[in-house]
Amino acid sequence: MWSRRQGRLRPTVCGVEELRRRRREQEPRDLGSGRPSHARREQQLVSKRLLREDAPEEAGEGCVAAILGEAEVQQFLRQAQRGTEEKEREGALVSLRRGLQHPETQQTFIQLEGSMRTLVGLLTSNQALLQLEAARCLHELSHSEQSTIAEACLPATSYLLTYLSGHSSDFIELCLYTLGNLIVESEAVRRQLLPQGIVPALAACIQSPHVAVLEALGYALSQLLQAKEAPEKIIPSILASTLPQHMLQMLQPGPKLNPGVAVEFAWCLHYIICSQVSNPLLIGHGALSTLGLLLLDLAGAVQRTEDAGLELLACPVLRCLSNLLTEAAVETVGGQMQLRDERVVAALFILLQFFFQKQPSLLPEGLWLLNNLTANSPSFCTSLLSLDLIKPLLQLLPVSNVVSVMVLTVLCNVAEKGPAYCQRLWPGPLLPALLHTLAFSDTEVVGQSLELLHLLFLYQPEAVQVFLQQSGLQALERHQEEAQLQDRVYALQQTALQG
Amino acid sequence: MQLPPALCARLAAGPGAAEPLPVERDPAAGAAPFRFVARPVRFPREHEFFEDGDVQRHLYLQEVLMQVADAPEKPRVPAFACQVAGCCQVFDALDDYEHHYHTLHGNVCSFCKRAFPSGHLLDAHILEWHDSLFQILSERQDMYQCLVEGCTEKFKTSRDRKDHMVRMHLYPVDFRFDKPKKSRSPASVEVPGDSGERSEGEAMEICSEPVAASPAPAGERRTYSHRSVSKLFLKHVLNVCSVLRILGCTWAAALLILNSER
């Protein structure tokens, strides 16, 4: 089931570095809030730019498409519109489509009077193959990163939406990808699509049995949900439609789960949930239960080493669960809160190990969920102890400062529950690990270590002696000049000396 | 990172929650200068915490979009003609035929042979063109339904409906599926391929004025069972197409197979 994804993933090392480099160039860091402005939008633009730069070299037809001039564009349009031979008309549109891979041709096209009107006419003709080629031309235009080009496609959107309720699955798929691309580029396009009924159109289309259509729909919806105005203008109407229930259905583990489709809708759910518009509604639809079961399924897939592309689905699932767990509604759902199941902790650790080996950059996301599971749950904290997971958790400390802080935070979640918990944390690898993290230079890591030490000393006083014997005081002294740490260092020194 | 061997067994076993150890907090735990409080953390959209995962997501999308942008390699077969009466369109690829069939023969009005992109638009057309009961009722109440999916508004006249679609739904004034009826015999077949006086391609139409000459009582409206016949035909044809594709047969060979079975 999961191995299907393998063929579609290419080595991404160069791509990742390029993306990060461009992102940092573009992104003006707002150090005050720590929030990068336009970061997500810029990333989307960057992705599209990379796509188009590669395409001309990849033209599989054996020739590189040439840039078309105004006269050529006009000629192809005329031939498509008025040609006598079916094949001639289709051929003209194919030539136009190839030319439209170039931004220059795209500009020429939209500046030519009547060109879009002609293309829309062909899009709505009763010649099915012309219609398909016209749609492909529109799809090429949709790849442009110029919002003016996207806006030039506005006359076509009502038809693209109308065709979503047809039956030709290839055509519907094309329309959906085209719509998704146009949505990214222009707020004017989105402002038109909403009153044109894109949400009901998608809600009707999501009942299609075709996997390719569902994947395309998920893509288009995910682009719509990432719009900056989405929380106010888009998400409320999506939550009011039947889309959430259908999305969750497609995330239910079982033989009908399609990985490509699930990835798209998991991301859609993430964009909805992190916008915090009405998460209790999603909890009411069983989102926690569905996502929890999906997490178990993912861990099972990892164990069966069917892991190709698995992180693409794991990432949004972790995010959705983590954010949903912060909702007050979680507490009031009563006995239906399936996330009391300690298999979720087992599954999460299996995924953490997978990330550790294959995708360390996702470790913080996994640990985020672990924090949210354990923060207010004595049961999950007990599971960490009874399933013997403290040692594996400590093994993550060297990965990075961010990971260290999160590991220490989770351990604090356990320790703060009292003596019964701290007894199980000591003796063991915890104290040596803490002495090690106290040697770090990162203030946040050291700060969190101090918090954990404080809890350990409070609830397990025998630990103090061992701490002293293992040169703990010297480890503390190193930080006594640090402004953010000194009060806590001093307090711990006092505790140690009095103990 | 090494996991305890019993963990996999725990995952495979049934659901269950650990019996929690007793919680017993000392107020000194949260006393200054210590400030740790166990709390779930929430990250809003656009938070930089999401950077790495988002980068992976966009790389994956690049891959997908590139596959969509390349027009698919169509497997070719010897040329064959569409079997629907009156349609002489010829194809050399099964995918093309499938699209043609859905587009032109999938939602066809059996009264006037006009084709529509969806069942929804076909239904509206039949009501407004060929149903005399509709005409009678529309004199007394708002019957012209908005054509936009999800909108339940109804109007007295098709003109009012068009105004609504333009104003409220930002639809184009010349939306091709809401054109006024052309004066043409309803029995004429739209034969694709006769370019004639077609300017931007004949579009499928819903009209605003009814055809007075064909009084079809509401009960007979169901003669647009041409649609369901078409669907059965389509199912049969497409099943054959699928089988052929799987078997890698040519069309001619398939005809041989079919003929030999009779």
TrEMBL record, chain A:
Residue ranges, compositional bias (Basic and acidic residues): 19-32
Gene3D superfamilies assigned: Leucine-rich Repeat Variant (1.25.10.10)
Region (Disordered): 19-54
PANTHER family: TRANSMEMBRANE AND COILED-COIL DOMAIN-CONTAINING PROTEIN 6, TRANSMEMBRANE AND COILED-COIL DOMAIN-CONTAINING PROTEIN 6 TMCO6
Protein name: Transmembrane and coiled-coil domains 6
Species of the source: Rhinopithecus bieti (Black snub-nosed monkey)
Gene encoding the protein: TMCO6
Automatic annotation (TrEMBL), chain B:
Highest classification ranks of the organism: Eukaryota, Metazoa, Chordata, Craniata, Vertebrata
InterPro entries, A to Z: ZNF511, Znf_C2H2_sf, Znf_C2H2_type
Taxonomy, superkingdom: Eukaryota
Cleaved signal peptide residues: none
Region Disordered, annotated ranges: 180-204
Protein's UniProt name: Zinc finger protein 511
Species for this entry: Rhinopithecus bieti (Black snub-nosed monkey)
Limits of the C2H2-type domain: 82-105, 109-130, 146-169
PANTHER family in the cross-refs: ZINC FINGER PROTEIN 511
